[in-house]
């Protein structure tokens, strides 16, 4: 084989050792934003799965807070946990307080009901 006769052409004085880049702090901010936004989405969409995801993300964000993030954040971690639990309660509210059966629910995009003659 011809590769055994070739000499290594790399110069050892030009070798630069690998240095790991500094970690970015954006992941904590993204988790905090997600834990604050998901409870509102659960309330607006009345989706129970989004409510449960809000609880999980907010508890994870609360338990993963560092001292620096506690000082820089505007809302404490337990507040986001409380908001997510409240959004979960709102999504399950129709099970415990069902709407009245005679009341017709209308949305903003539907045409108005016809007026009886």
TrEMBL record:
Any Gene Ontology CC annotation: endoplasmic reticulum membrane
Transmembrane is among the record's keywords: yes
Record keyword Membrane present: yes
Protein's cellular compartments: Membrane
GO molecular function, one term: protein folding chaperone
Main location: membrane
Identification of the protein by name: Protein Asterix
